[in-house]
Amino acid sequence: MAAEAGIQLDLLAASGQGGRVTKADVEVYMEALANAPAAAVAPSASTGAAGAAAASTSGAWTDIPLSNVRKVIASRLLESKTTIPHYYLSVDVNVDELQAVRAELNAVADGKYKLSVNDFIIKASALAMKDVPEVNSSWMDTFVREHHTVDISVAVSTENGLITPIVFDSHLKGLATINENVKDLATRARDGALAPAEFQGGTFTISNLGMFGIKNFSAIINPPQSCILAVGTSEKRVVPDETSENGLGVATVMSVTLSCDHRVVDGAVGAQWLQSFKSYCENPMKMLL
Fold first, then answer.
1. Distance from the CA of 47 to the CA of which of 66, 221, 252, 273 falls in 20 to 30 A?
2. Mean pLDDT in each 10-residue stretch from start to end of the chain (289 residues)?
3. 22 is in which domain, residue-wise?
4. pTM of this prediction?
């Protein structure tokens, strides 16, 4: 179909397992092309708005042509939100110990790496997947596919839109390797230099808006994945403390929200995953075992 229509496969957002292009992917792209003015169609998926038609400006507004990337993002998000029965689970995580371990590891890194909180979140998510494998699954219409490897997609914002490069085999990698992978993937994502196999697929997604000061939010699932974790900022809060004289203390708390596909992940299963994730974050030395 793509060959007959003169469409390059690397322009398509593949929804099939392992980054495969499906018939539906070709149809979505062809429909987007058919409904868009010829001048508004960018010549490649990486061109974005810069390669599209010039914006139309009036005294009251500016009309910005849609890039192919933005069209595909819009189509997939609409499909996800209207066809997947989302539900949401939130939990607060004490990250004081995580930040202490991070500081200690960075102090002895000798410039070889600089771990971020997000590296720990990726590792904790991957280990929680092994503890609760039902979350590491995909809805395949007539069956549920439970994956044996944990390939975590990390949401990265670029000029052309949101892209989710994948840290493959996250459950097998150490924190320094995860840190190296994420920096490399994010840099190449913003440069438009990722191969399709590096951002199409994955078994779970993490979207972190904590650096923008966002306390909490609910993310849209990236099909055919069954869950996505939305990570908010860390902030100092007053918490119960039985060891203090007045019963109160101060802790650094991070809020996270897990969006789940109810067809695959029941509420109790999602809650078990969050318990496991929280345990790894609050006891980060467990990640090193």
1. 221
2. 79 81 85 53 37 62 85 88 96 96 94 94 97 95 95 90 92 96 94 88 95 94 95 93 86 97 97 98 91
3. 2-77
4. 0.79
